[in-house]
Write a structure and sequence with these properties.
By secondary structure, the protein is α+β, with helices and mostly antiparallel strands. The protein has one domain. The chain contains twelve helices and 14 strands. The strands form five sheets. The chain has a four-stranded antiparallel beta sheet, with no helix packed on it. The protein has a three-stranded antiparallel beta sheet with strand order 6-10-9. The chain has a three-stranded antiparallel beta sheet with strand order 12-14-13. α3 crosses α5 and α9 crosses α11. It starts with 28 loop residues before the first helix and ends in a 31-residue tail after the last helix.
């Protein structure tokens, strides 16, 4: 998903989507030649860096999730549909740390240098290894919870609305990450019954063409090993990736203040301001343990941010021996797996 383009803004939610943190583009050619191939790097679309998914499940499964400030609003809508035979299925919105790690996995797969251009199919492969690689411990509860988030991300619909220009025109953009997939015969009935543990993993998922394009063009790099340190906390992940995105874009001669009001709009989930402050203070500590190079201060006014050189963070991209990467560097084929039936001719 991608917010419409706009001039750079001080808003906590809205920034120019064409500003890019280049992984190695600003390095001298001789230094780039020394960069190893096995980088411990993952990717995340920048819209997820400025407007995160819900921290936890809405109280009602049919309830949409919203974030907004004075210029930008994000709505994530759940989905309901009818199965052959007439049974209605309700799928809620994605939430929590696992959904964030899955969104990162999708973007990282698209940015895999061994992926053929235009190949939108995502393969899960061996489940236990796949879960470890995306930062999730593969025990029973996590297996079921992750499977639930795969379904939620597959069916969620994203709507973004932004005020633009002096006249305040309303721009809107609508997206769905997954446009196609194959599940085992009775799995959606099992999902509707809450029997997620009895479901199989999807046989295949296909990103929408727009999601593929935006993951390809507008994702920022983050160090995989750093994310692993905070993989248990949705707000810590949100704070970490926000800092990875924003700090290199601040002028070296200026600082930016994200007020507590803006922090609540961006990272909150409807709790009281005092409760949010307590939670955010803990999350920023966790985020800074993963990103100690970040130049930020939490004050009574909010979060004060100063330019942080991306070269400092880039040092964390180099994979250590035995390090894990989210992306599996395997040779890919055009189109779906061999056993994937065609859904639409």
């Amino acid at each position: 998903m991608s917010a419409p383009s706009s001039p750079a803004s001080k808003s906590s939610l809205v920034h120019n989507p064409h500003e890019q943190l280049i992984l190695f583009g600003d390095m001298p050619a001789i230094e780039r030649s020394r960069v190893p191939d096995n980088l411990d790097v993952s990717f995340l679309h920048k819209s997820f860096c400025i407007a995160g998914l819900p921290l936890r499940a809405p109280k009602a499964i049919a309830e949409p999730f919203t974030r907004n400030d004075d210029r930008f609003a994000l709505t994530i809508n759940p989905t309901s549909f009818v199965l052959p035979g007439g049974r209605k299925v309700q799928v809620g919105v994605p939430f929590g740390p696992k959904a964030r790690l899955l969104a990162m996995w999708m973007a990282t797969e698209v940015r895999d240098p061994l992926r053929r251009t235009g190949d939108c199919w995502l393969e899960i492969g061996r489940v236990m290894e796949w879960m470890r690689n995306i930062g999730i411990k593969p025990h029973t509860n996590n297996l079921n919870a992750t499977k639930d988030q795969v379904v939620r991300l597959s069916f969620a619909k994203f709507t973004m609305i932004m005020k633009e220009g002096r006249d305040g025109d309303m721009l809107f953009d609508q997206d769905q990450l997954i446009e196609r997939g194959v599940l085992e015969g009775e799995d959606m009935d099992r999902y509707a019954d809450g029997k997620i543990g009895q479901m199989s993993w999807p046989k295949g998922l296909r990103l929408s063409a727009r999601a593929y394009e935006r993951f390809s063009q507008y994702s920022i790099p983050v160090p995989t090993s750093r994310i692993a340190k905070i993989a248990h906390s949705a707000m810590a992940i949100d704070t970490f990736v926000f800092l990875c995105y924003r700090l290199p874009l601040i002028s070296s001669r200026e600082e930016e203040l994200v007020s507590w009001r803006q922090l609540i709009a961006q990272f909150g989930s409807g709790e009281a301001p005092s409760k949010f402050r307590e939670t955010f203070q803990s999350s920023i500590v966790n985020a800074l343990e993963a990103y100690p190079e970040a130049k930020v201060d939490l004050t009574d006014e909010g979060l004060r941010m100063r330019y942080s050189d991306p070269a400092d963070l880039r040092k964390a991209f180099v994979a250590m021996p035995g390090g894990k990467k989210i992306s599996s560097k395997r040779e890919r084929k055009d189109g779906p797996p061999a056993k994937m039936p065609s859904l639409v001719q």
